[in-house]
């Protein structure tokens, strides 16, 4: 892996150490923008504190870093939320583990090209001009 990958892993682990252990999966997801297009990903973070989620610009790293311990403890005891975290983590992990040959373009599986000018998510500002 690359040094950048290692930096992300270290940052995710540092964030995971700050939140209650049952929410460690959210910290790992926060550093991988796949959460933003995985069904249910957005709602995971919004359910922690909807108002703070909006104030943080829907930035999951900020949300987990700025949310109080009481709210995090409440989320960590929510069995439904923990199950949804596991589902989204599994979906992201499966996506990362899929074989490269699945990425071959076919009429049934077209490839979309990303233009950074249009952005990935509002929490990742891209300035061009």
Summarize the structure in words.
The protein is mostly helical and 129 residues long. The chain has one domain (3-100). Helices cover 53% and strands 0% of the residues. It has seven helices and no strands. The protein has helices at 3-18, 24-30, 41-46, 50-55, 60-66, 69-76, 79-97. α2 crosses α7. It is globular. It starts with a helix and ends in a 32-residue tail after the last helix. The mean pLDDT is 88.
The percentage of residues in β strands lies in under 5%
Spans of at least 5 consecutive residues with low confidence: none
Tally the helices: 7
Structural class: mainly alpha
- Classify the helix fraction into a percent range: 40-55%
Categorize the overall geometry: globular
For the biggest sheet, the summary is:
none
Mean pLDDT: 88
What's the Cα radius of gyration? Answer: 16 Å
The number of domains is: 1
